[in-house]
Each structure stands twice: as C-alpha cells, then as structure tokens.
Amino acid sequence: MNSHLFVRKVRRNLEDYGWRITLTKSLAYVFQAFYAHQVYRIYRIDLTKPRRPAEFDRPGLTFKILDPDDHQAISQIETAHEWLQGGLKESIQGGAICLAALQGEQVAGFNLIGFGTVFMPLVNKKRLFRKGDAWSEQIAVMKQFRNIGLASDLRYRIFEELGRRGFERLYGGALTSNIGSLQLARKVGFREILDIHYYRILGRDFWRHQKVKP
C-alpha cells in the first residue's frame, strides 16, 4: 500500500473506530512484515427461509443494482474504499452484484456480492463457493447516513434479490474485533460458523480454522 492510500485508510479508520483502534491497526500494518495475527469470523444465512421485507423508507433515497456504466457511483465507492480502487467496475462486469443506496447522485451505502472464487483480503485467502452460494464482499454505509437502519435494509434487500435469482445461501465475514459488523450480522439473521486464524510470520502465511460453537 502506498503512503497516500495508507493516510486515507488511517483517516477513514479514525472516523469509523476512533483513535485507539486506529492506532492498533496502524501499528499492526507497520509490523505486519514480521508478525501479524487476525481472527476472521465467517457467518452464513439460509436464503430459502421466509424473511421479513426491508422496511427502510426515506424520501429521496433510492436503491439500485449498479451496472458498469454507473461511473459516478462506482467512483464514489472506490474513493471511499481503497481496496476496491480500479476493480469495482471489472467485478460488476464479471457478474458481481452491487446494491447501492443513493440520495440523488450521492452513494449513501452499498453491499457488494461475489460468486465462485472470491478473495478474502483480511486473511489473504481465496475460497471457491459452490453454485447457489454467494459471498458478501463488502457492506458499508457512509458516515452521514449511519444510525438510521440503512445497513440492515441493504442486507434485507440483498437477501430478496439473491433469493429471486435462485441463490440458497449467503456468506460473509468480519474480524472478531469488528463488533459493529458482527452485531449487524446477528441482527439480520446470520449464524456464525467458523473462525479463520491468520498468521503472518517473517513473510510466511499460516492459517488455522476453528468452528464457532452455537
């Protein structure tokens, strides 16, 4: 990661988590060439079961499945999330689904869904998902639209969209330190199933898998 992207990431972490977690993340990044350890929790939801519909409604807010020609929305998402820079349009062209909440031309939040072979950057690992399974690459709500139920509504709407397309299961994941993300997953019905322990020691990667007890 170049210095410009690193500074942007630090600023975004400050907005999202405060200085304590930002400091921890920054130090981990600096020393990751020598040692790193993260625990990534995988969760899953059954899309075939009846589910309550999305309830979020606000004048001026619309929901749209982005296509490759939605340049402005794609640019906003890539600018806010550095790991997606230059790749979101290509992902959509390749079949990924990106559900965006828009207020006029402004992106309020989005949920990006992938299929087949996906990459989990937080644990530097690829996984192949079976037909009928989908993976939540990223869900995010811009700061000024938080605490109004939008993240939950994005989830419920993507459940409906995937169900209409014949998908049976949706998987996602978050670091165990990301309490807010895990709380959202539980709230909308995900079940936590697996912890991936990722170690990086002197430039070499190691993984350990542990089932989550019900």
Q: Can you tell me about this structure?
A:
About 30% of the residues lie in helices and about 35% in strands. With about 210 residues, it is α+β, with helices and mostly antiparallel strands. It has two domains: about 1-30; about 30-210, 3-Layer(aba) Sandwich (Aminopeptidase), CATH 3.40.630.30. An eight-stranded mixed β-sheet has the order 2-3-4-7-8-1-9-10, with helices on both faces. The chain has a two-stranded antiparallel sheet with strand order 5-6. A hairpin with a 4-residue loop joins strand 5 and strand 6. Helix 1 (about 5-15) runs antiparallel to helix 2.
Number of domains: 2
Number of helices: 6
- C-alpha Rg, in Å? 17 Å
Number of strands: 10
pLDDT < 50 stretches = none
Could you tell me how far the N terminus lies from the C terminus, measured between alpha carbons in angstroms? Answer: 38 Å
Order of helices and strands: HHEEHHEEEEEHEHEE
Summarize the structure.
The chain has 214 residues and is of the alpha+beta class. Helix content is 32%, strand content 36%.
Summarize the helices and strands and which ones pair or pack.
Layout: H1 3-17, H2 19-31, E1 35-46, E2 61-65, H3 71-80, H4 88-93, E3 97-103, E4 106-114, E5 117-120, E6 125-128, E7 133-141, H5 150-164, E8 169-175, H6 179-187, E9 191-201, E10 204-211
Parallel strand pairs: 7-8
Antiparallel strand pairs: 1-8, 1-9, 2-3, 3-4, 4-7, 5-6, 9-10
